[in-house]
Amino acid sequence: MRERGDDWSRALFYYGDDALNQYRYERLDLRLAKRFRVHGSNLYLAALWQQRLDDEPTTTIQNRYNSRHRLSVSAELEF
């Protein structure tokens, strides 16, 4: 994870396992976040992009969730 002086932070993660639930698992995550100062509080907004690098199922071969990428957003307010 790396923070810059202008309230932006970014992170790049790699996850890998040869035998997670009997399947190979590889994933790359990219996270971008921005801090806003609001009346003495901090507001953090972040986006997380997850990209699967393998063709294996997540849990079982009958898994119906077949997307290789996922995007999520989050917000945090710190008083």
How does this model look, in words?
This protein has no helices and 5 strands. By secondary structure, it is mainly beta. The protein has one domain. It has a 5-stranded antiparallel sheet, with no helix packed on it. The relative contact order is 0.23.
Q: How many distinct beta strands?
A: 5
**Order of helix and strand elements from N to C terminus:** EEEEE
Give the proportion of residues in helices: under 10%
User: For this entry, what is the oligomeric state of its chains?
Assistant: single chain
Low-confidence residue ranges: none
Distance between the termini: 23 Å
Q: What is this entry, summarized?
A:
With 79 residues, this protein is mainly beta. Helices cover 0% and strands 67% of the residues.
Produce the secondary structure layout.
Blueprint: E1 2-3, E2 8-20, E3 23-38, E4 41-52, E5 69-78
Antiparallel strand pairs: 1-2, 2-3, 3-4, 4-5
Keywords for this structure?
single chain, 79 residues, mainly beta, five-stranded antiparallel beta sheet, 67% strand
